[in-house]
Design a protein that fits this description.
Number of strands: 12
Strand order of the largest sheet: 3-9-8
Number of domains: 1
Strand content: 25-35%
Number of helices: 1
Helix content: under 10%
Distance between the termini: 34 Å
Bound molecules: zinc ion
Largest sheet: 3 strands, antiparallel
CATH topology: Beta-clip-like
CATH architecture: Beta Complex
CATH superfamily: SET domain
Shape: globular
Amino acid sequence: MKSLQLEIHQTPDKGRGVFAGEAIARGRRILEFQGTVLKSAELTDDMLAMQVGPDDWLCSDGSLLDDCVNHSCDPNAGFLDGEPALFALRDIAAGEEITWDYSTSIGEPGWTLECRCGSPKCRGVVRSWGELEPAEQVRLRAIVLKYLRV
Ligand SMILES: [Zn+2]
């Protein structure tokens, strides 16, 4: 299978983002997150870290394409198989920005991010998985990382 065309572009208000360079059919695997898995005690401020387990963080120096994928409270991509890899949740048109919901990877209590996704479903403040409203957990259950599926 040929690899999917993905492009990094500047967004008006969210820094860099990752965009579909071609139409992506629903269910297609878009990308796998890359990096080195470290424990929280090993993290330093200059790393970008995505939580992938209770004390496992997938880290990079910010130079990877997957570091640029932005959050949305109504994402078009998610962790359908529970692994840190994004799948298309619906058909995505060429030129559309790829987004995932950061709450579906983070289990760290107290973590928050002010959201500017602009979706009608926007939660305003993005929180860690365990601090989401139960209805939100139900809505996002199919796309959360495996370690949070308890
Ligand atoms: Zn939002």
